[in-house]
Amino acid sequence: MRNRPTPAADREVPAIARKLGLNRRQLLAATTGMAAAGIALGGVPLAGSAAADALLIPRPRRGIILYTVRDAISRDPATSPYASGFRAVFEELSKIGYRQIEFAGYNQSVNAPGGNVNNVEGARLLRMWLDDNGLEAEGNHGSVPSTITDASLAAFDAACEVANILGMRHIGTGSDPTGSAYLADWQAAADRWNILGERAAGHGLKLYTHNHDIAYSFLLDSGPTDALGRPTRSSGVRRLEWFLANTDPRYVWLEMDIYWAHVAQHKHHTYTAPDGSLVEDRFDPLEVVRSAPMRFPLFHAKDGKKDPTQANGYVMSPFGEGDIDYQAFFGDMPARGYHNPMWEQDTAPGGALNPGQSLALAKLSYQNMDELRG
Known about the structure:
It comes from Nocardioides turkmenicus. The chain crosses the membrane at residues 27-52. This is TIM barrel protein. By secondary structure, this protein is an alpha/beta fold. It has a single domain (45-370), classed as Divalent-metal-dependent TIM barrel enzymes (TIM Barrel, Alpha-Beta Barrel). It is 36% helix and 16% strand. It has an eight-stranded parallel beta barrel, surrounded by five helices. Helix 6 (85-96) packs parallel to helix 14 and helix 7 packs parallel to helix 8. The longest helix is centred in the middle third of the chain and has 20 residues, at 183-202.
């Protein structure tokens, strides 16, 4: 099966699409189409223009997920001289130059201006502060229902209402669609996400999932079964690649965390084939994006320094201070200028010893975004 000749009409289809069993027509259906990209971008320069060649991340699309500065968001302004709470942090991020915000929940210190803003009235207050500082909310790492019930759909609708108040174009989660390695569970997740994605679209929103490295490991979908009747080997298809190919491109979107994708490149490169042989298959994050560029409206632009002593192969760092080749990643990507990169560094907070560290690193990372040319 793996040696079957490729039809002439499909020879120009990217390798990842061929591995997933997609022909040219199916590939076009799994993406939103490059021809539509020029319209969807609303005038944002694409590759080839002088503006695009100068700046790989256009200034209006430079963003940050607030998880990076969660210490400042949660800080009590009554006990700290540092920026504390949403309003003060928005002001600092705007001064640095950021124009896009991705939320990681809506909790802050009760002593910060606005107090508890994790409600509809709080969302209106947050929107006012965003507008005051020239910031746009792009998404949120919230909760996506794990089951479809009347109650879970009502909760999802309420989250979409808040997203609309905040002016978001996307709504999502920081978790993978499922933590399972088995094809049946990914099929169930795809069915659920198609339902929720269509519901989000009814609210004018794009539903997205955010990846970690395990989502790019190989599905267990073939070979002998275990005592519970579950497959123990793989056809060589990665979990999230299967999800991308088997969800409706009109309703389901992805946010690639570029750091975790490179960790996946380091960790997940061998699988056991149905015949028991070990197969080497190197993962290329950029090829995944190229296979369906319009399915990735958001990125986490997280950087890392290579460290072979670590299981992940990298240690997180400020943007532009690591070893991930962002010039090549953004420079060689189709639909340049369409995507919204959110800087993230899980390790940015400095704790009691350096309470100003996360905002200082936000400034450094923004400067490095500004210097990224191609």
